[in-house]
Write a structure and sequence with these properties.
alpha+beta; five-stranded antiparallel beta sheet; four-stranded antiparallel beta sheet; 20 helices; about 55% helix; about 10% strand; elongated
C-alpha cells in the first residue's frame, strides 16, 4: 500500500493533480445534497479542501500557489468575457448607483473592523486579516501582509485570521442572500426577465392611417421619430413585399414591425392603428405569410464580418432581404443598422430563397466552424490581464504601490475584450457551455487550493479563545454591511433581487456566492452587476487594507 500512500502524501505533480481532483470531485458531489432545501453547490469544494488539509494532506507550496492563482485567473477572466458585451451599457443604466452601494458595503465593513479591534482589544493586524477572510479577498490580504513586512510587523497572524474567517465569509454571504430573498425580495424579482438593455424584440402589425406619414420613406420616419424599429414586411394591394429605406408609405398599407414593447404607443401614434393579432407566439409559421418569401436563420461565422455594423453591409438594399432579429447568447436583439455583429450571432432573415442563400454565403452560416474554441484569444487575454494586474499604482500618502493583482487585472481585461474585441475584429467567440466549463474548472481549482492551505491549522485555531472572537467578528463584518445596504438598495433605490445580490457578491469579492446565486436565480442580472462593481471594489479593498494599517497601527 506504499504506492497509494505516496500518491496521496508525497509531494509531486501527480500527487497534486490527484488530490485536487479528488477534493473537487467529492466537493461537487456533496454540494448537490440539499440541507433544508439549500445546497452549497461548488462552494462545498472549499470545505472538502479544509477537511483534507486537517487530516494531514498537503501539496507542494509552489504547486498549491499555482493551482489557486491559475484557477482564480481563469474564473474571473471567463466571467469578464461573459458580461463584457453588456458591461458598459449596464454601467450607463445604473452603474454609478451600484458602485456607490458597493462602496457603502466596503466602508461599513472596514469601519466595523476598526471598531471591533478597539472594543474587543484585538490586534489590528489580526483584524485586518479577519476582514480579508470575511470578505474572501486574497489580494487585499497579500497587500496587507506586504505592508506589515515593510512596517516590521509579523504577518503570520493576519493570514491565520483570514483563514479562520474565510469559511463564514463564504457561507455568511449565502445566508444573507437567503435572508434578503425571504424578507426583501418581491415575487416579480424571482421571475426570469430579459435585460432591458438588450431591447428584446416585440413584433406587431400596424395599418397606416396617419396622413402625416403618407408618402414618407421609412428612412425619413426613422430619423424624424427617433424610434428604434424594423419594418419586416409590407402588405399593399394584396401582395407582400420586403420594404427598404426608400419605400414610401401609402394609406391603408399594412406593416409588420419589429421593435421593443415600450415603443408600441409611439408607433401606434406614428402609423395610425395597431392590429390586435398576437405576432409573438412561438407557433407562428412565418413562411406561410407569403409563398414567395421565406424566413430563415443564418449564423455569422465569417471572421471578416466580426465587428462590422449591420448597416455597413447594405444587405437589405443589395439583396432585397430584411433582417428582423438577432439571437446572441440566448438573448434576442433588435436588428438595427448600428448593431455590431459578432461571431455566433444568429440572424433572422426574410426574403426570397435565392437571395437568402446569397446572404448566407456572405455571413458564413457554417455552424461547424464555431465548434472549435478560440483558445489562443483566451490565453492572450489572460496574459494581458496579468500584465494589467501587475502594474504598480502609486497613490498619495501610501508608500507601497498598489496593484490590482490576479483577480482585478484579468476581470478588467475580460470585460474590455468581451466588449471591444469584436469592434477590433478579434475572434473571441466561445460557446456558453465552453465559458461555463472554464469558469467551473477555474473556481474549483481555486476553492480546493485555498481550502487545503487553510485546513492545516484551521481547527486548532478555532478552539482558541481568540479564534472564537475572530470567527464572530468576521461573521459580523460579512453580514451586517450586506443586510444594511440590501435594505437601501431594494427599498430606497428600488433595485431588483438579482441586481442587488450580484452587487453585494461583487462588493464582497465572493465568486462562490455569485455561483450559488446564478444557480438559484434566473437571468443574467446578478453576473452583470457583479462585474460592474467588482473592479472598483477590488481596487478599493486592496488600498484600504494598507491604509487602515498605516493610519491606526
Amino acid at each position: 500500500m506504499e504506492w497509494i500512500n505516496s500518491l496521496l502524501f508525497e509531494h509531486s505533480a501527480i500527487q497534486a493533480i490527484i488530490v485536487l481532483s479528488l477534493v473537487t470531485a467529492t466537493g461537487l458531489w456533496l454540494g448537490k445534497i440539499h440541507f433544508g432545501g439549500i445546497s452549497l453547490g461548488i462552494t462545498f469544494v472549499f470545505f472538502m479542501g479544509i477537511l483534507a488539509g486537517h487530516v494531514g494532506i498537503s501539496l507542494d507550496e509552489q504547486m498549491l500557489d499555482y493551482a489557486e492563482s491559475f484557477g482564480l485567473v481563469i474564473f474571473v477572466y471567463s466571467l469578464g468575457l461573459q458580461v463584457g458585451p453588456g458591461f458598459f451599457s449596464s454601467f450607463r443604466h445604473g452603474g454609478v448607483p451600484l458602485n456607490l452601494l458597493s462602496l457603502g458595503v466596503i466602508f461599513l465593513g472596514t469601519a466595523l473592523t476598526v471598531l471591533l479591534s478597539y472594543s474587543l482589544s484585538l490586534p489590528l493586524p489580526d483584524m485586518v486579516g479577519v476582514l480579508c477572510g470575511a470578505t474572501t479577498n486574497t489580494p487585499a490580504l497579500g497587500a496587507a501582509q506586504q505592508t506589515l513586512k515593510q512596517m516590521g510587523e509579523p504577518d503570520s497572524t493576519a493570514a491565520l485570521g483570514a483563514a479562520v474567517a474565510y469559511p463564514l465569509g463564504v457561507v455568511g454571504v449565502i445566508l444573507a442572500i437567503l435572508v434578503i430573498r425571504k424578507l426583501l425580495a418581491r415575487p416579480d424579482d424571482l421571475k426570469e426577465k430579459e435585460p432591458e438593455s438588450m431591447n428584446s424584440p416585440y413584433v406587431a402589425a400596424f395599418q397606416v392611417h396617419n396622413p402625416g406619414v403618407f408618402h414618407k420613406t421609412l428612412k425619413d420616419l426613422g430619423l424624424l421619430s427617433h424610434t428604434r424599429f424594423v419594418v419586416s414586411r409590407l402588405w399593399r394591394d394584396g401582395k407582400v413585399t420586403i420594404p427598404t429605406g426608400t419605400t414610401e408609405l401609402q394609406e391603408n398599407d399594412r406593416l409588420l414591425v419589429i421593435t421593443t414593447e415600450k415603443e408600441m404607443p409611439t408607433l401606434t401614434l406614428l402609423f395610425g392603428e395597431q392590429e390586435n393579432r398576437d405576432w409573438n407566439k412561438e407557433d407562428i409559421d412565418w413562411n406561410s405569410i407569403d409563398r414567395n418569401l421565406v424566413s430563415e436563420h443564418i449564423v455569422v461565422t465569417r471572421p471578416e464580418i466580426n465587428g462590422k455594423r449591420l448597416g455597413a453591409l447594405h444587405l437589405r438594399n443589395l439583396y432585397d432581404i430584411n433582417i428582423s432579429r438577432v439571437l446572441r447568447s440566448g438573448v434576442q436583439i433588435l436588428a438595427t443598422p448600428d448593431l455590431i455583429l459578432q461571431l455566433g450571432d444568429r440572424l433572422t432573415v426574410i426574403g426570397e430563397k435565392e437571395a437568402i442563400n446569397r446572404v448566407a454565403g456572405i455571413l458564413g452560416n457554417s455552424a461547424s466552424t464555431l465548434r472549435e474554441p478560440n483558445l489562443a484569444a483566451i490565453f492572450i487575454g489572460i496574459v494581458l490581464g496579468l500584465v494589467l494586474g501587475s502594474v504598480p499604482l502609486s497613490l498619495p500618502g501610501i508608500s507601497t504601490p498598489v496593484k490590482m493583482g490576479l483577480a482585478g487585472g484579468p476581470i478588467i481585461m475580460g470585460i474590455l475584450v468581451g466588449n471591444f474585441g469584436p469592434r477590433l475584429h478579434m475572434r473571441i467567440y466561445t460557446t456558453r457551455s465552453a465559458n461555463l466549463m472554464l469558469r467551473g474548472i477555474g473556481l474549483s481549482l481555486y476553492l480546493a487550493g485555498i481550502g487545503i492551505d487553510a485546513g492545516a491549522h484551521f481547527f486548532e485555531t478555532v478552539v482558541r479563545p481568540e479564534g472564537i472572537l475572530w470567527i464572530g467578528s468576521g461573521f459580523l463584518i460579512t453580514v451586517v454591511p450586506i443586510l444594511l445596504m440590501a435594505v437601501i438598495a431594494m427599498r430606497a433605490c428600488k433595485m431588483n433581487f438579482g441586481t442587488t445580490c450580484g452587487m453585494l457578491c461583487g462588493s464582497m469579492a465572493n465568486p462562490m456566492a455569485l455561483n450559488y446565486l446564478n444557480d438559484s436565480y434566473p437571468g443574467n442580472d446578478a453576473s452583470v452587476s457583479y462585474a460592474t462593481v467588482y473592479p472598483l471594489g477590488m481596487f478599493v479593498r486592496v488600498i484600504l487594507s494598507q491604509v487602515v494599517l498605516m493610519m491606526f497601527l
